[in-house]
Automatic annotation (TrEMBL):
Highest taxon of source: Bacteria
Record's protein name: SpoVT-AbrB domain-containing protein
NCBIfam families: lp_hng_hel_AbrB
Pfam families listed in its UniProt record: MazE_antitoxin
SpoVT-AbrB domain sequence ranges: 1-46
SMART domains on file: SpoVT_AbrB
Species per Swiss-Prot/TrEMBL record: Neomoorella stamsii
MF-aspect GO terms: DNA binding
InterPro entries, sorted: SpoVT-AbrB_dom (IPR007159), SpoVT-AbrB_sf (IPR037914)
Alphabetical list of Gene3D superfamilies matching this protein: 2.10.260.10
Keywords: DNA-binding
Length: 117
């Protein structure tokens, strides 16, 4: 079983046999998945480009039409929820522009699970 040591910067060198098994090379994205009391390391995509072709669509898609449709849905949702939602979104964006809060990476996925007590 390979063993690695964490550096003072929190970095770990992945042992050669693990890199070979995963087929990873410098620049490969890795995903860390917490399951119970274990952490899984999985080979991740190379950003948004890795998702190309992962969703089946019926026929050709017009990018501009799809974008307009999505923008319309978001606008309807914001209008339906009231002005507070707009203010929250606007202040978050302005805060990021002014450097008050770092923006999440564009390829981040946030999963929220509600637990019942």
């Amino acid at each position: 079983m390979p063993i690695a040591k964490i550096s003072s910067k929190g970095q770990v060198t992945i042992p050669a046999e693990i890199r070979k098994f995963l087929g990873v090379t410098p620049g490969t994205h890795l995903r860390f998945v917490i399951r119970g009391n274990t952490v899984q390391i999985e080979k991740g995509g190379q950003g948004i480009a890795a998702l190309k072709g992962s969703v089946l669509v019926a026929g050709e898609q017009d990018f501009l039409a799809v974008r307009q449709h999505a923008m319309g849905e978001v606008a309807s949702e914001i209008a339906g929820e009231g002005k507070d939602v707009y203010r929250n979104i606007f202040s978050w964006r302005v805060g990021n522009i002014k450097g008050k809060e770092p923006a999440p990476p564009w390829f981040a996925v946030i999963i929220i699970t509600q637990t019942t007590a």
